[in-house]
Design goal:
Blueprint: H1 9-13, H2 21-34, H3 40-43, H4 48-65, H5 68-77, H6 100-113, H7 124-133, H8 138-145, H9 149-157, H10 166-180, H11 184-190
């Protein structure tokens, strides 16, 4: 069994090398929750420094694999994987297009990246864990997004009695998610609403 330090980014997030963007996002939310401050799973196993170090590794893996260009570079330089026409991973970019086959292949890959409907539903606890992992305060988000911190806290606590109608909550979620580096539409679409 490999040590954590020896795991590549795919192994760290427990996804395959041809994982879609939604697979990577789902894995990130799951593993970030497992290493959060409130997680019972990590409580007796890791020291606070080890937990924070692990969250840093997870964050780096996620930001690399969720960005097309960074992922391609990582695959090529670290894993020694050359772009392959048979993979479903998004590997072609505008400057790679050479002929009609390349254009068709690029369009098919872009369509597969946009299929994010299989993402699991998640809630406020995961958002809070990711926000804390990144060292961002609710006040900071409130100032930048102009959303009351009481609303942001209610979103994290899933306290729907303190929130306005769903249409407003979805807008708040998009702003919140964008600020902490998550896909705003994905978060808005997959947040578990109890009051609908």
């Amino acid at each position: 069994m490999k040590k954590i330090e020896d795991l590549n980014y795919y192994e760290l997030l427990n996804v395959s090398e041809d994982a879609t963007l939604s697979d990577i996002h789902r894995a990130y939310l799951l593993i970030a929750s497992a290493y959060s401050k409130d997680s019972l799973a990590a409580y007796n196993i890791l020291s606070e420094n080890e937990r924070v170090d692990m969250l840093g590794r997870i964050e780096t893996a996620y930001t690399t694999l969720s960005d097309k260009k960074k992922r391609l570079l990582y695959d090529k330089e670290v894993l020694k994987i050359e772009p392959d026409r048979n993979t479903s991973a998004p590997i072609l970019f505008a400057n790679d297009i050479k002929d009609e086959d390349d254009i068709k292949f690029k369009e098919e890959n872009e369509k597969s990246v946009l299929k994010l409907t299989d993402l699991s539903i998640f809630g406020g606890a995961q958002l809070k864990n990711i926000r804390e992992m990144k060292g961002i305060t609710l006040d900071e988000i409130s100032k930048k997004t102009r959303i009351r911190s009481s609303y942001l806290k209610a979103i994290e606590e899933e306290d729907f009695d303190r929130l306005p109608e769903e249409v407003y909550i979805r807008g708040f979620l998009r702003s919140y998610a964008g600020y902490i580096g998550l896909d705003p539409e994905m978060v808005s679409k997959n947040y578990k609403f109890k009051k609908i």
